[in-house]
Structure formats: structure tokens, C-alpha cells
């Protein structure tokens, strides 16, 4: 009996010691919590959850629920929970505000390139109308030309377009217009603006020089996380030498801007890209001087090397493009059946040719085509939009050939009716403009965004 008593006594002492140590441990934790200060929580939530706005919002919601519960459960738990809440709020205050722009707009797709024109002007910003007052172009056959009206359009009610822009007869220099355009292109989930470009002091025959506008466009593009590349137009005396100097000019002046587009090649290099409109006008031998390694005016393996994309119109152009040293081809025109290149059923064979010759094939899709406001005799090339079905058919055809890049003709080529920019119904005097009804003015932006997402998903399958 005495032995059992000793054993029980030792057990009680050991239990008391363990219990005392446990109480001391709990007290030390409580004291540590009591002496904590919010400014010691400088790193915010564990595991860096504060870097993720969505998770941060969930934490705040949980804290709010917890605070309601704490009012019932007692002051001690409330103090601990409040310390956590203060730490979260302190961390939130130290972070830059969440960019609402990024939350509201679709993410840019840098494999969707869209042709953009900055050649429009109005009296407020330019002292006169530019391009909106486009002349009516005569047919090359005088007998046919005599059957159609002549003269110029008279803005703002009468403009050189079959549709009417929501922004009116705007100036491309208007900062609010540039920003509206960037926001629209970003909402459409395009990523690269292909800017129509002439060298300094030069312009198309109906326009004014626009190179001085490039820095502003780059700045606004950067604000919307878009990139800018250049669509080099057929300026006067364009040849291998002038092209070398103009490419050098563009890269030297704009190449350091964060919105300047560079394309990652299969070899891992990041190179500028230039689309060359009407490239077929210049002989392949001239282009080869610039674009082949052995050329007399070669740009290859220099600081100004780039990817040069030629316009393919006729089937024979594909051999000339290859011989010239171009890196790829695009089709530009939004008129299915107008040319060999713009005909959807030819894209598979063109893609196969490009694949076998290490060239990029960039099909161009468009929502429709109508240019009778400036070429009244050209009805036969009109392509009805069919409430967006024409555009979707073009995208579907493009995706079938699995291109690395799809180009869109266009954001705002209003003269040829290929724009996806917002348009509104308008009737003035004798002019009744076409519109996007029964859909809203942004329907083609939404369709572009839809196909951008579809392209992303399909591209994941191609790469598997």
C-alpha cells in the first residue's frame, strides 16, 4: 500500500510540474501578443498573399466576418484579430493602388496585330479637315469615269466613308481621341498596333506628315499595355538605301520606348517587325540588297536587323518575297476573293509554302469592305458585314492554318469600310450612312475579343 502511495505522489508532482510549465507557456504567448505593434508587421500577410488583389480582398472579407464573431467571443480574441486586420491594412496602404484599367479591360494578345491610321485631321487641331474630305477617285477608264460624280467630300456632315465614327470627324492629334482608340483596341484584346508610317516630311497624297505624332501614340499605347510596330507605306523613291536609313531612324528614335514592339523569334532573339505595304512594287533584286546577308546594303546582322513582312497580292509574289530576303508575308485586304492573297481558300497553301521556306505567314482578317464613298465605281468589291458573320468567317479561316500572328484590317481605315472602331447611325441631307445595327457600336470590338480568346485556347492545343 505504501509503495502505491509513493507512485501516486510522484505522478501528482509530475502532473503539476507539466501543468505549471504549460500555463507559463500560455502566459508567455499572451504577453508576446499583447506587446506586438502594427508597425512590426511591415511585411504584411504571410506567403506574400498581399501581392494578389483577389486574395487580399478575400482576407478583408474574412476579417470582417471574424470581427462580428469576436464581439460575442471576448476581448482577448478581438485584440488578436484586430492586430491581424491592422497589419493587413498597413500592408495595403504601402502597396500601389490596384490598376482598375487592367481589371476592366481584356488582356492584350500580342499575336493579334491591328492596322491603324493617324492621318485624320479637323479644323480644331489641324486648321482644316484632312482625309475626311477625301476626293472621289475617278475610274482609270475615262468612259466609265464619266458616269460617276466628281469632287470632294465636305465634312463634318459629309465624310469620305460609308460609315460614320462615334467620335465624329476627329483629329488624330486629339489626345482624347488617341486615348479612346487605345482603350478600344485594348478592349478588343489586340496587342500590337501596326501604325501606318511615312518618313518625316512625307505623307500620302491626301494627307499631311504624321511622324511627329509617333511619340504620343507610343506613350498612350504604353498606358494601355499595347505595343506599336510600323506599316511602312510606299513613299517616294523607296528603295534599299532609303529603307536602310528609315529603319535606322525608327529604331534609333523609337526603339528605346517601352511600347516599341519586338517579336521573339524561334532562335530566341527579340527583333523589331516592319510590315511593308506594296512591297511588290520594288524589284526583288533591290530588296535582296537590303534583306540578304550578302546584299550590298544589307541590314542583316547589324544593330538594325529586324523582321520584314511583305505584302502578298498575287500567287507569284510568294517566290519574289522568298527571293527578296523577306521574313514573311501578310495579305492585308479584307475582301475575300479580291486577290489571291486575300482569298481564304488559298491560305492553307500559302502557309505550307511559308513553312517549307522558313517564312512567317500572317493572314489578314477584316469585318467587311466598302469604299464606294471614295471609289463610287467599285461596288463589285463590296463585302457585306452580314451582322458580323463575315468577320467571324475570316477568323475561322485564319485559325484553320494555325498562324503565329493574325493581322486585322483594320481599326480605322474608314475610307475602305474595314474599320472595327465604334460607328453610329447617321443621316444627313442626302447621305445615309451604314451602321452596325441591330448591334451596338462596339460589336466588332467584342467579336475581336471573342476570337482573341478562342485563338489563345486553340494555340495552346497547337503547341502541345
Query: How many domains make up the coordinates?
Result: 1
Find the structural class using helix and strand composition. Answer: alpha/beta
CATH architectural group:
Alpha-Beta Barrel
What is the H-and-E element order?
HHHHEHHHEHEHEEEHEHEHEEHEEEH
Brief descriptors of the model:
nine-stranded parallel beta sheet, TIM Barrel, 464 residues, alpha/beta, two-stranded antiparallel ribbon, Glyco_Hydrolase_99, EC 3.2.1.130
Please describe what this structure looks like.
It is an enzyme of class 3 (hydrolase). The chain has helices spanning 2-35, 53-73, 75-94, 100-104, 123-126, 142-145, 175-187, 214-223, 240-254, 284-291, 317-324, 347-356, 389-400, 443-462; strands at residues 109-116, 190-197, 227-232, 263-264, 270-271, 273-276, 307-311, 328-330, 360-362, 364-365, 406-408, 427-428, 431-432. The protein has 464 residues and is α/β, with parallel strands linked by helices. The protein has a nine-stranded parallel sheet. The chain has a two-stranded antiparallel sheet with strand order 4-5. The longest helix has 34 residues, at 2-35. The model is unreliable at 32-98 (pLDDT under 50).
Layout: helices, strands, pairs:
Blueprint: H1 2-35, H2 53-73, H3 75-94, H4 100-104, E1 109-116, H5 123-126, H6 142-145, H7 175-187, E2 190-197, H8 214-223, E3 227-232, H9 240-254, E4 263-264, E5 270-271, E6 273-276, H10 284-291, E7 307-311, H11 317-324, E8 328-330, H12 347-356, E9 360-362, E10 364-365, H13 389-400, E11 406-408, E12 427-428, E13 431-432, H14 443-462
Parallel strand pairs: 1-2, 1-11, 2-3, 3-6, 6-7, 7-8, 8-9, 10-11
Antiparallel strand pairs: 4-5, 12-13
Helix pairs in contact: 2-3, 7-8, 9-10, 10-11, 13-14
Amino acid at each position: 500500500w505504501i509503495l502505491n502511495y509513493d507512485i501516486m505522489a510522484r505522478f501528482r508532482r509530475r502532473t503539476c510540474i507539466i501543468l505549471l510549465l504549460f500555463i507559463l507557456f500560455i502566459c508567455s504567448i499572451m504577453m508576446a501578443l499583447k506587446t506586438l505593434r502594427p508597425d512590426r508587421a511591415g511585411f504584411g500577410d504571410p506567403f506574400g498573399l498581399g501581392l494578389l488583389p483577389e486574395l487580399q480582398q478575400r482576407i478583408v472579407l474574412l476579417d470582417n466576418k471574424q470581427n462580428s464573431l469576436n464581439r460575442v467571443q471576448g476581448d482577448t480574441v478581438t485584440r488578436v484579430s484586430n492586430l491581424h486586420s491592422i497589419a493587413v491594412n498597413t500592408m495595403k496602404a504601402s502597396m500601389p493602388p490596384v490598376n482598375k484599367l487592367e481589371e476592366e479591360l481584356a488582356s492584350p494578345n500580342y499575336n493579334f496585330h491591328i492596322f491603324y491610321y493617324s492621318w485624320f485631321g479637323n479644323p480644331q487641331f489641324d486648321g482644316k479637315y484632312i482625309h475626311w474630305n477625301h476626293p472621289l477617285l475617278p475610274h482609270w477608264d475615262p468612259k466609265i469615269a464619266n458616269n460617276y460624280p466628281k469632287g470632294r467630300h465636305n465634312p463634318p456632315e459629309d465624310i469620305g466613308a460609308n460609315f460614320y465614327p462615334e467620335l465624329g470627324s476627329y483629329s488624330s492629334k486629339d489626345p482624347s481621341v488617341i486615348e479612346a482608340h487605345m482603350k478600344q483596341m485594348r478592349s478588343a484584346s489586340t496587342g500590337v498596333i501596326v501604325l501606318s508610317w511615312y518618313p518625316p516630311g512625307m505623307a500620302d497624297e491626301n494627307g499631311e506628315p504624321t511622324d511627329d505624332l509617333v511619340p504620343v501614340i507610343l506613350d498612350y499605347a504604353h498606358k494601355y499595355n499595347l505595343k506599336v510596330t510600323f506599316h511602312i507605306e510606299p513613299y517616294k523613291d523607296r528603295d534599299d538605301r532609303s529603307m536602310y536609313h528609315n529603319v535606322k531612324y525608327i529604331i534609333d528614335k523609337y526603339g528605346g520606348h517601352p511600347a516599341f514592339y519586338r517579336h521573339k523569334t524561334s532562335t530566341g532573339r527579340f527583333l523589331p517587325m516592319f510590315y511593308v505595304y506594296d512591297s511588290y512594287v520594288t524589284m526583288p533584286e533591290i530588296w535582296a540588297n537590303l534583306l540578304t546577308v550578302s546584299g550590298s546594303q544589307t541590314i542583316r546582322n547589324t544593330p538594325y536587323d529586324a523582321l520584314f513582312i511583305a505584302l502578298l497580292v498575287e500567287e507569284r509574289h510568294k517566290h519574289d518575297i522568298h527571293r527578296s530576303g523577306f521574313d514573311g508575308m501578310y495579305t492585308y485586304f479584307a475582301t475575300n476573293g479580291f486577290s489571291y492573297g486575300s482569298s481564304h481558300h488559298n491560305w492553307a497553301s500559302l502557309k505550307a509554302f511559308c513553312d517549307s521556306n522558313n517564312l512567317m505567314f500572317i493572314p489578314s482578317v477584316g469585318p467587311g469592305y466598302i469604299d464606294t464613298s471614295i471609289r463610287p465605281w467599285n461596288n463589285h468589291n463590296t463585302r457585306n458585314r452580314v451582322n458580323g458573320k463575315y468577320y467571324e468567317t475570316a477568323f475561322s479561316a485564319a485559325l484553320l492554318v494555325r498562324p503565329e500572328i493574325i493581322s486585322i484590317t483594320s481599326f480605322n481605315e474608314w475610307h475602305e469600310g474595314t474599320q472595327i472602331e465604334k460607328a453610329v447611325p447617321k443621316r444627313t441631307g442626302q447621305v445615309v450612312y451604314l451602321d452596325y445595327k441591330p448591334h451596338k457600336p462596339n460589336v466588332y470590338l467584342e467579336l475581336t475579343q471573342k476570337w482573341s480568346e478562342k485563338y489563345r485556347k486553340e494555340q495552346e492545343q497547337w503547341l502541345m
